[in-house]
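User: Here's a structure from my thesis project, written as structure tokens. My advisor, Dr. K., wants to see whether a designed sequence matches the one we expressed. Can you design one independently, without my sequence as a hint?
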């Protein structure tokens, strides 16, 4: 089988004609993979910080004003004394 000059200049063509170079490249990749396998971190459950906490209190039939006066203000007063709370946002809707 005769190969053209174009085939021998390509990477695959060079490896076909020079199997030692292909084997050395494969050995290089295997050695690099074996060396780097210890530095790869694998986590089953990744670590993350909990940024947001949502509190939902259903109050069927109540208006937003009633919910704010009866529930929201009481919850805000209780959790505002905690040290790790940076910001408090509250929404009062019909029934929730």
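Assistant: Designed independently from the structure alone:
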């Amino acid at each position: 089988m005769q190969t053209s000059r174009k085939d021998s200049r390509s990477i695959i063509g060079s490896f076909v004609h020079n199997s030692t170079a292909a084997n050395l490249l494969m050995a290089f990749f295997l050695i690099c993979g074996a060396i780097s396998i210890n530095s790869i971190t694998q986590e089953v459950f990744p670590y993350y910080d909990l940024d947001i906490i949502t509190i939902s209190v259903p109050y069927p039939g109540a208006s937003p004003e009633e919910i704010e006066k009866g529930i929201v203000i009481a919850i805000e007063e209780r959790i505002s004394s905690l040290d790790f709370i940076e910001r408090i946002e509250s929404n009062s809707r019909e029934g929730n």
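When you compare it with your expressed construct, this may help: Helices lie at 5-9, 11-17, 19-36, 64-79.
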